[in-house]
Amino acid sequence: MGGGGGGAGSRVKVVGQVERVDGRSLTYPEFVDRFMKPNLPVVLTGLTSSWRSCEDWTLAGTDGRRRPNLDFFAQNFPSPLVQVADCSSREFTDHKRLEMSMQEFIDISVRNSSTGSSNGDCEASLLYLKDWHFVKEYPDYVAYTTPTLFVDDWLNMYLDSHPMHRDPDIANHKNEINCADYRFVYMGAKGTWTPLHADVFRSYSWSANVCGRKLWLFLEPSQSHLIFDRNLRSPVYDINDDVSEKQFPDFNKAEWIECIQEQNEIIFVPSGWYHQVHNLEDTISINHNWFNAYNLHWVWNLLHEDYKVAKEYIEDIRDICDDFEGLCQRNLAANTGMNFYDFFIFITRFVLANVIELYHIREPEDAKFNSTETAHPFVYNLMQIRNVASKMISKEAFSTKNLCIISEENRSAMSDVTKILKDDSFRRLWMSLSEAYAYIGRGRRSFDQMRDLNQKGCLSVACLKSDCNVVDDITFLMLEIHGPEDLVRLIDAALRE
Ligand SMILES: O=C(O)CCC(=O)C(=O)O
Ligand SMILES: [Fe+2]
């Protein structure tokens, strides 16, 4: 049976179901302890009732189910260019991607549904609109609010104020659109599907069904090796297909966890879990990828693994390359979406933002921080970044020789701490972090306190200049950051203070 079938094939051994929890009664610490930290999936109910998208984007269907209101999209969101996957044709490990206007997508979808092709009766292709950067494209239309459980999102916070890449060789126009953020809308008719994959950067994702139903099949990370081919290079593409035993000898051993996600339910996809997804009805979903202190090590581990592959691939031209490391890093950015320098600049910003938060809220009785997971969230964040930074220290990308020849853009984004702290992009990032933590109630600031501070100007740009000494305090600890070693030293100094 092909992917469009939507049912588990004979070799797919389903051993369990994803837990379902009422999201309204799950506290943030419970979500952390039960799902985010142990890296386990969950389906959350009751979190989308106030979303405008659930009303505007859907029409009443049968038995209380709703269906997509395609006219609403055509009229209100006439995007000239959306990405569409053709679910009937494969390109490497994914579906072939097409680009078309929203109107074209709708016209084809309507035509297909009237000819019944989505049931597989006819040859017409199954089109699945994916990775639509809806929030970036229509910022004034508030389709939904991110549930509190998912607001500790460093990836999107960062991309709201910083570019993913500095290197001019990498940061071209197409990249800028693709890296604009990781907040997406998906829309696909019954029968559309997503091949087996683990998410970008090995981030977490959450996915909410505005209408429709999805079948998910998950494999826990400790079993990932079972779905790779005998050379351990590529994963199975469609688990419902007749997977070749010769090519994928261990596939039969994989034990799958299943879930049918209903309308208005949100699924939390943990880091590194391979999954395949089928739309069982015409479905619209909203989907974010994100990471934070709990899964940052997944991101680094992926970058490191992909780096080794990128390097091995061009090892034979090392001797004739002026800047072999630079080439590896450019290839890594192209293949994985981020390279060591992008990631280092990213974590440097988060170290500084967390140190500022720590300085701002520190009270005398907090002087003795402990490093356990129950310690203050900013201490926890810094400890997790420290773990990752310490693994980066020995890497060739950060050797003196290679740091001497990195692009001017990368170098200037890295080093001068005062400049970073006074930069408007950084301030926006730090404010977003501060707000997010106030929101989830993990920072000491309540919303009221935030408002007071705002009035005093403490969260405004003036904060760092006038009554607040945080720039001096931090630059007293360190003036320049040249690589992961400095970052580790800065974190140690900040936590010792
Ligand atoms: O809904 C889909 O088709 C895929 C979603 C997905 O892979 C995810 O949310 O991680
Ligand atoms: Fe995914």
Walk me through the structure:
The chain has 497 residues and is of the alpha+beta class. It has two domains: 3-290, Sandwich (Jelly Rolls), CATH 2.60.120.650; 296-496, no CATH class. It contains 18 helices and 16 strands. It has helices spanning 28-36, 52-56, 70-76, 102-115, 134-137, 154-159, 173-178, 296-313, 324-336, 340-361, 377-392, 400-404, 408-414, 417-422, 424-439, 447-456, 470-477, 484-496; strands at 13-17, 20-22, 42-45, 58-60, 66-68, 82-91, 94-100, 127-132, 183-188, 193-197, 204-211, 214-219, 255-261, 266-269, 274-279, 283-290. It has a nine-stranded mixed sheet with strand order 2-3-14-11-16-9-8-6-7. The chain starts with 12 loop residues before the first strand and ends with a helix. Mean pLDDT is 89; it is low at 4-9. Bound molecules: 2-oxoglutaric acid and fe (ii) ion.
Number of helical regions: 18
Q: Report how far the terminal alpha carbons are from each other.
A: 62 Å
Largest pleated sheet: 9 strands, mixed
On the 0 to 100 scale, the average pLDDT is 89
Q: What sort of overall outline do the alpha carbons produce when their principal axes are compared? A: globular
Give the fraction of residues assigned to helices: 25-40%
Unreliable segments of 5+ consecutive residues:
4-9
If classified by CATH, what would the architecture of the largest domain be? Sandwich
Family: Belongs to the JARID1 histone demethylase family.
GO cellular component, one term: nucleus
GO molecular function: 2-oxoglutarate-dependent dioxygenase activity; sequence-specific DNA binding
Domain JmjC: 151-307
